[in-house]
Amino acid sequence: xxxxxxxxxxxxxxxxxxxxxxxxxxxxxxxxxxxxxxxxxxxxxxxxxxxxxxxxxxxxxxxxxxxxxxxxxxxxxxxxxxxxxxxxxxxxxxxxxxxxxxxxxxxxxxxxxxxxxxxxxxxxxxxxxxxxxxxxxxxxxxxxxxxxxxxxxxxxxxxxxxxxxxxxxxxxxxxxxxxxxxxxxxxxxxxxxxxxxxxxxxxxxxxxxxxxxxxxxxxxxxxxxxxxxxxxxxxxxxxxxxxxxxxxxxxxxxxxxxxxxxxxxxxxxxxxxxxxxxxxxxxxxxxxxxxxxxxxxxxxxx
Length: 302
Ligand code: CIZ
Prior knowledge:
302 residues; Rossmann fold; four-stranded parallel sheet; 12 strands; binds (~{Z})-2-methylbut-2-enedioic acid
């Protein structure tokens, strides 16, 4: 089937099923263009919770679909590619977190949204890159465990002045962005401000004019008067940055800052998901009950 036919069939099935299609900022351009809403995991979870639709086609990675299912268990959450995981989320297990908690009894646990439902279920607070600083600032405790992203954790510790016990995980895509790449772009485009994601390494963050979540990067790009901006995050962002700011150019450190998991979802897989309403992501009631308090806190501290 040609792409145009697939798009037409997706549209027909979307009307027929009343499904809501959500896409993460790192999805393929053609998948973003299908979606009713494109955003970060918090925005997507909020859309999922607010929709009257009974079916959500979630174009993102597994933990994001799980978070949506935690917030709205009565809706059908379909992840068009079940293998779309997150290597950062995979750096931590519930057993690993329990072992760290046992070493620090009484510590409050803040877990980045990039984690499985079973890890969220072991956590007191969940956070996103956009509200991690506010979440940690709101906690008054002698010890705080921050998991699983060590780069985001270090950035939050620097900004809040709190000593955090960090899990040693990272996003391999953001970790790949080097200070040399940013310096080279700055040298070639001296007027371009640098905005990077807090999952980047410390030496990269130190070169930036702004550090922001994916939503924050869109806001920064819209506000900036610069004609060119250097952007340190996943390359999928280019599509909507350019679409929303056609007069500006966005320079990424390299062509290999691509998350292969995010790119697993394709138009034919979205079509298949609408035809079959499978594969679904379902968090068990027991797990959901344990994870919900942490996720609710994340949603509340926007
Ligand atoms: O929360 C998200 O969607 C992720 C993974 C990053 C961000 O900054 O939006």
